[in-house]
Amino acid sequence: MKFDFGEVLTRSWQIIWKHRILWVFGILASFARGGGGGNSGGSNNSDYSQDIPFQTDPRIQQFMRFIAENWWVLVIAILIIFLISMLFYSLGIMGRIGLIQGVAKVEKGAEILTFAELWSESMPYFWRIFGINFLIGLVIFIIIIPFILLGILTAGIGFACLLPLICILIPVGWIVSIILEQAQPAIILENLSMLDGFKRGLEIVKSNVLTFFVLALIVLIGAGIISFIIIMPIFLTIIPLILGAETLKQSLTPAYITLACCTLYFPILLFLNGILTAYIQSVWTITFLRLTQPTDNVPIIAEANA
Predict the structure, then answer these.
(1) pTM for the complete prediction?
(2) Residue 234: exposed, middle, or buried by beta-carbon count in 10 A (0-12, 13-18, 19+)?
(3) What are the sequence ranges of the domains in the chain?
(4) Residues of the chain where predicted confidence (pLDDT) is lower than 50
């Protein structure tokens, strides 16, 4: 069967542009997207470290002593952060389900979408979508952790030895993510269990390997370019701070300015990223519909089990 990439990409944009309530679910869905980062640094030069204001600030030292004497505060803080993270991730799952439901309803002929309706219709599928994402994430975590530990214990030599295996795992992870993108609509629109949904997604991908390869490249490259454009203002704010890092020895004002700029831009970043997430999820959902119901392109939304 010939797959019309242009029609799917165009139709996806038409749907999220006409039904802007899907942007809200896109913002929510972005909470469940994997990502994060951090950095650390150190120096053996004690004189240099003593020149940095926030390392010798009495208030910082007093805070560190307080934490050392009241370690339970740190434990509670970590627990609260974990609970908040799970809350946002759960909202992300609901956003993802709402997007799939919304796109399917529009393809079925719905003219109006409401937040309350999509939210209530998404709730019965929460644990299945949460479960399949959690289990796949857990498997990936279990696979990656030994590599990280080996690399740390061997001072990085283990990473070099495992490089060929890592190069294999990257495309495997990519394939699994594509299967997941088809398994989720299968679970929701065909009312399947987690296992049956994953099997259904695997079946669809296996039957249309070339189609998904091309589509995944389009989504990956296109989303990468757009994401780079969206995040560019953050880079433009941080780069001058990095280049002028030496000035932090005298004053932290540049850091405060950078933090303020990033804080002001964050709502815009969240909004734009939500639209992008809504569009990408719409593309994968319509792809599922086109490949599973090529005759009339009308999805059947199954009722969830009570």
Answers:
(1) 0.79
(2) middle
(3) 5-31+55-123+206-292
(4) 34-54, 297-306
